[in-house]
Amino acid sequence: DFGSLSTEILSAASKAGKSAPKILSLKLDVMNYEDVEAAAKEVEREFGRLDILINNAGYLSPFESILDTPKEDYWRNYEINVRGVYWVTKAFLPLMLKGGEKTIVNLSSRGAMGLRNGGSGYQVTKMAVTKFTEFLMVEYGDQGLLAYSVHPCGALTELGTGMPKDFHASESSFGLRNGRADNWW
Prior knowledge:
Shape: globular
Distance between the termini: 33 Å
Strand content: 5-15%
Strand order of the largest sheet: 1-2-3
Largest sheet: 3 strands, parallel
Number of strands: 5
Order of helices and strands: HHEHEHEEE
Helix content: 40-55%
């Protein structure tokens, strides 16, 4: 719920003694390039540039073998996880190169670096996101762009609940004891 998130952000700024940030609420469907372009134009109109872009949209088809996965589900991984990241980056990167922090964070997955029976639709796309992130640095690093591909862990988000259970993060996954990471690496 964006309304409650806005309230939470404004409250946190107030508690920290900071001025209220300007919040711009946009509808952006990464499957629709016109939405993406319209959002980039609105950000440019309101702020003139963009400091940080976080590509967080994702899709996880069921973990089924290639022959058992419906072709539409399998391909949707590519449409959202790869094309969506590309489209959003393509639309917003010109705003980032105008100045500011020039930072892109692309959410990948630990699955990008491994193989799991039934995971090819998702895992290959996350490897593509990781490689795409490297290309951003090669092509725009000399202009000050910093691009990161991060794995947020096997969190039980709406998307994450579709992963096999042994992918889900737990305290033992990170060597946590009493809420503290002892051997996190």
